[in-house]
Design goal:
- 41% of the residues lie in helices and 17% in strands.
- A hairpin with a 2-residue loop joins strand 1 and strand 2.
- The chain has helices spanning 2-10, 37-50, 60-79, 94-106, 127-136, 153-159, 182-191, 211-214, 239-244, 279-295, 297-316, 344-353, 366-371, 388-406, and strands spanning 18-19, 22-23, 25-26, 88-91, 114-118, 139-143, 164-170, 195-199, 218-222, 233-237, 255-258, 263-265, 321-324, 334-339, 356-357, 359-361, 377-381.
- It is globular.
- It folds into two domains: 2-28 and 296-406, Aspartate Aminotransferase, domain 1, CATH 3.90.1150.10; 40-294, 3-Layer(aba) Sandwich (Aspartate Aminotransferase, domain 2), CATH 3.40.640.10.
- By secondary structure, it is α/β, with parallel strands linked by helices.
- The strands form five sheets. It has a seven-stranded mixed beta sheet, sandwiched between helices. A four-stranded antiparallel beta sheet has the order 13-14-17-16, covered by helices on one side. Strands 1-2 form a two-stranded antiparallel sheet.
- Helix 3 packs parallel to helix 10 and helix 4 (94-106) packs parallel to helix 5.
- The two termini are 40 Å apart.
- Bound molecules: pyridoxal-5'-phosphate (PLP).
- Residues 30, 93-95, 122, 124-125, 170, 174, 199, 201-202, 222 line the site of pyridoxal-5'-phosphate.
Length: 407
């Protein structure tokens, strides 16, 4: 395994960078991951060898670009075990994917229809539903979490009724790092006839996904959090649903025929990919999927577990530390913590002096921080190229910062 991670680290040129004269210890993977040379090269390769607009021409280069872009959809299909590659829509990111669904559903929902989400969501899985509440008379309900960060399934179940049209939950919270029982949530929702949208922004990069097994109706994630380029994300949706839904954005490429009176929508996934697609980054996202598949999601999950199991007991030795999401057995490599007497910003600033990059603040999850009665946390998040040694260095520096600030 040690040899394996050494090989992995060599693929990420940024890990050679020094910050304040110290080797970079990048623990902000939840915000965005780093990219391997295979992905960086794929971007350049596309522009050097394949660049042409897709779908629109009969010339060779356009056909090649189209095929490569379609292939990237197929790689994602395989990655999450979707039934059909046409169920894979490329968007800009998770945020756009969720907005696509909320906007599209706004045409069919009626005042009084209900949507259930949770208090532990990223803002991008709250605000699109608040839009439906504020402008379309939809009732929005929030399921609670337990003190240990786990979802209160009984509460979610109580809130989900015959009036519920969508249950929208994260599979892994970007603050708690806990894996939610999405199969069970889908079962509860389907029993009441509701659709389910899974925010997989923090699960797709870290654990193996099987959308057919989960039976999710929609699932959203971002390429940039899983070794891919920025500006490319995914909405998975069941084909029959996507077929029946109104398009989100309207314009070129998403139509089959246009008259001055009306338009006929293109087939999936193009119906939901209006305008010139981000085909170069789509191609490079395919390279990221190849890389993750080669390393293996099972290995990544195990690797992060090893780091978390090593780190948590050591962190808990630091006087006055509070960790969020304490169901450690269900945790991926995301650890958010705070102290009553030291601000997260102080922690983040001083860790940076040692080359350690962590995120501080509310991580776009203000309602969750409100639930815990705190203003913010520091968050260390790990990925496949992080090592136990880095975790050891992080906890060592954190202990010494805490001692120094208090002295
Ligand atoms: C759980 C979760 N959902 C949604 C998002 C939004 O992702 P993006 O900014 O790529 O749209 C994030 C980003 O951190 C996230 O962690």
């Amino acid at each position: 395994m040690v040899k394996r991670i050494d090989q992995i680290r060599k693929d990420f040129p940024i890990l050679e960078v020094e910050i304040n004269g110290k080797p970079l210890v990048y623990l902000d993977n939840t915000a965005t991951s780093q990219r391997p040379v295979q992905v960086i090269d794929a971007i350049a390769e596309f522009y050097k060898k394949y660049n042409a607009n897709i779908h629109r021409a009969l010339h060779t280069l356009s056909n090649v670009a189209t095929e490569l872009y379609e292939n990237a959809h197929m790689k994602v299909q395989k990655f999450i075990n979707a039934k059909d590659w046409r169920e894979i829509i490329f968007t800009r990111n998770t945020t756009e994917s969720i907005n696509l669904v909320s906007h599209s559903l706004s045409y069919t929902l009626k005042p009084g229809d209900e949507i259930v989400t949770t208090i532990s969501e990223h803002h991008s899985n709250i605000l699109p539903w608040q839009m439906l509440r504020d402008h379309f008379g939809i009732v929005l309900k929030y399921a609670r979490i337990n003190q240990d960060g786990s979802l209160d399934l009984n509460h979610l179940s109580e809130l989900t009724t015959e009036k519920t049209r969508v249950v929208a939950v994260n599979q892994v919270s970007n603050v708690l790092g806990l894996i939610n029982p999405v199969k069970e949530i889908v079962r509860i929702a389907h029993e009441k006839g509701s659709l389910v949208l899974i925010d997989a922004a923090q699960s797709a990069p870290h654990i193996r996904l099987d959308v057919q097994d989960i039976d999710a109706d929609f699932l959203a994630f971002s390429g940039h959090k899983m070794l891919g380029p920025t500006g490319i994300g995914v909405l998975y949706g069941k084909k029959e649903l996507l077929d029946s839904m109104e398009p989100f954005l309207r314009g070129g490429d998403m139509i089959r025929k246009v008259t001055l009176e009306n338009a006929l929508w293109n087939e999936l996934p193009w119906k939901f990919e209006a305008g010139t697609s981000n085909f170069a980054d789509g191609y490079a996202f395919g390279a990221a999927i190849d890389y993750l598949s080669e390393v293996g999601l099972d290995w990544i999950e195990e690797h992060e577990k090893e780091i978390v199991n090593f780190l948590i007991p050591k962190l808990l030795e630091i006087d006055g530390i509070h960790i969020l999401g304490t169901r450690y057995e269900d945790k991926i490599g995301v650890i958010s913590f705070f102290f009553d007497d030291i601000s997260p910003e102080t922690i983040g600033f001083l860790l940076n002096e040692d080359g350690i990059a962590v995120r501080t603040g509310c991580h776009c999850a203000q309602p969750l921080h409100e639930f815990y009665g705190i203003r913010g946390t520091a968050r260390a998040s790990f990925y496949l190229y992080n090592t136990v040694e880095e975790a050891e260095f992080f906890v060592d520096r954190l202990s010494s910062i805490v001692r120094k600030v208090r002295s």
